Amino acid sequence: MNVAYFPGCSAHAMAREYDRSARMVCNDLGVNLEEVTDWNCCGATAAHCLDHELMLGLGGRNLATVHRMGFDKVVTPCSGCFNQLKTTGFELKSSKTPRRDIPRVMHLLQFLTEEIGLDRLADLVVRPVRRLKVAAYYGCLITRPRKIAEFDDPEQPSSMDRILTSIGARTVKWSHKAECCGGGFAASETSIVIDLAGQVLEAARQAGAEAIVAACPVCQLNLDSRQKSIEEERGTIYGLPVIYFTQLIALAFGHPVRKTGLRRLMVSALPLLERTGLV
Questions:
Q1: Are 107 and 219 in contact (CB under 8 A)?
Q2: 248 to each of 11, 26, 110, 128, 198, how far by Cα in Å?
Q3: Of 274, 160, 157, whose CA–CA distance to 214 is shortest?
Q4: pLDDT (tens digit, 9 = 90+) per residue, 58-88?
Q5: E-assigned strands of 132-196?
Q6: What's the pLDDT at 183?
Q7: Strand partners, 243
Q8: For the chain, which terminus, N or C, has the lower number of CB atoms within 10 Å?
Q9: Can you tell me the distance from the alpha carbon of 19 to that of 191, in angstroms, rounded to the nearest whole number?
Q10: Residue (of 251, 246, 244) closest to 218 by Cα position
Q11: Which of 195, 207, 203 is nearest to 178 (CA)?
Q12: Rounded to an integer, what distance in angstroms lies between the CA atom of residue 131 and that of residue 272?
């Protein structure tokens, strides 16, 4: 199966391990991710705040490229890219002169859930992650707003929980699975990230999670890189590795830790993986 793939800026920089593990998993599933030709930044997170027409132009160019490549859908692992491209497609379809050739935009999480299916994922598991107790963290962009995202429940999403369960993990019930981590304020308003991401970490800790599993590069970055500062602010040691869901799937599919990018995490996952017999 060939699928148009929009990696987004993060996947080629701070989230290379997300991109790498996503490609590994899809390859195992018989899915060829064909990177969108000469793609450009989607506009997240600044363009849509500063210039709406610019945001539509950036997203529109990418969608037009996907169409010219002959694809009727495009998959992206980034929540920000997903939200921006979905919003662009929604507005182009809803304009006074609506376009009918807009490719469908799917988050990788959605693609694996709806197009591949849990049974197929479970069939490829050779090393179940049964002893891992994790909090599935969706963030605020994958499922909202409902009429644009058209995916999962905006307040109580379950797709990632179901994927993680299919590879053997135990997911906790917790209050902050779809709450904001502070997003793009990581550089401009660090205190906001410390507060919001701290609430997410605390909720996961109280629910008994041993790790947080993310599907967004910005969420992963905020919770991972700011965790030490959050611990100092709150006076609590969390020590919660923040792992991409594709990394866990790759691990369950039998790929060695060194190839999944799990060694790149700032809050190391290795002690947890060793304790649960996965290394």
A1: no
A2: 17, 13, 16, 10, 23
A3: 160
A4: 999 999 999 999 999 999 999 999 999 999 9
A5: 133-137, 170-171
A6: 84
A7: 213
A8: N
A9: 29
A10: 244
A11: 203
A12: 10
Residues 187 and 230 in one domain: yes
Could you tell me if 199 and 212 are in contact, meaning their C-beta atoms sit under 8 angstroms apart? no
- What are 5's strand-pairing partners? 35, 75
Question: Which class for 106: exposed (0-12), middle (13-18), buried (19 or more C-beta within 10 A)?
Answer: buried
Give the domain range for residue 97.
Answer: 2-112
22 occurs within a structural domain: yes
Asked whether the beta carbons of 260 and 24 are under 8 A apart, the reply is yes
**Which among 80, 112, 144 is the end of a domain?**
112
Q: For residue 268, how far is the Cα from the chain centroid?
A: 19
Residue written as token pair 């919660």 = 240
231: exposed, middle or buried (Cβ count in 10 Å: 0-12, 13-18, 19+): middle
d(CA 65, CA 71): 9
β-strand pairing of 211-214 with 170-171: unpaired
Length in residues, the chain: 279
CA distance 145 to 106: 14
Task: State the Cα–Cα distance between residues 79 and 11, nearest whole angstrom.
Answer: 12
Same domain, 101 and 166: no
Residue 5, helix vs strand vs coil: strand
Query: What pLDDT was estimated at residue 45?
Result: 67
152 and 249 fall within a common domain: yes
Could you identify the residue written with the tokens 């599935």?
Answer: 136
Left (φ > 0), alpha (ψ -120 to 50) or beta: where does 247 sit? Answer: alpha
What is the tally of structural domains in the chain? 2
Q: Please write the tens of the pLDDT for every residue from 172-198.
A: 999 999 999 998 786 678 899 999 999
DSSP 8-state code for residue 36:
P
Confidence of residue 48 (pLDDT cuts 50, 70, 90): low
* Distance of alpha carbon 18 from alpha carbon 16, whole angstroms: 5
